[in-house]
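Supplementary notes for students who missed Thursday's class. We covered one full example, reproduced here. Read the sequence, then the structure, then the short commentary at the end.
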Amino acid sequence: MRILPSATVALAVAGFFGFSSNGAKAALVFDLTYDHCTGGCSTGVTPFGTVSITQSGVSGAYTDAFTVTLNSPYAFNGNGNGLDAFSFSLASGAGQAVTLTGASALSGSGFAITAANQLPAKQDGFGSYAYAINYGGTGATLLTFNVADDGINPLSLSSFLAGVPNGNGSVNDPSFFTADIVGKSGNTGAVGSGITTAVPEPSTWAMLILGFAGVGFMAYRRKGHGPALRLV
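Structure (token representation):
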């Protein structure tokens, strides 16, 4: 009987178990597809942008990192017309503290957390949201911020976010986010999110690839040097 090399076994086990353990931290990714701009903001480029959320930390002390990216030629609406640049709602117990991060937190960036006495945030065509970030600049296409999540559940649609009807009256396909944007033609207004999809984090892909590499190496060893594992 031949014993498999310990390194090979470790690679395979790490890869497959890495996929399982990191799966709970997969990103939630939303496309901004609903158009409630005055006259329509779409210039043929859809979606208008994406919202991605990744989670780190442990149960009861998670940090959820948001990245809001608008696709060219769209940008956040700087004048706002009394509307916030980005609005969202969290499920009960999902967390409270919202903090800007990266370039969005720098002085002069134009982004600021909307004060509690100015909430809920009303977005034209969508409804009211519990949290919002306003913008006083021009031309920004990227917004990053964190939510201190005191929930006990890993990041998931059902345990983290609360949506409102998407403006078309659909409660089965709610909008979890809205962004107030300006289009190439100068039209402004709110756009909202569509259905969510889960995608693995880069670390998950790396571990999975290692696992497959280990399995491939085992197959090569069996082919080139005879049986690598024999049941007795």
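Commentary. Residues 1-24+201-232 form one domain. The CA atoms of residues 45 and 71 lie 8 Å apart. If anything here is unclear, bring it to office hours.
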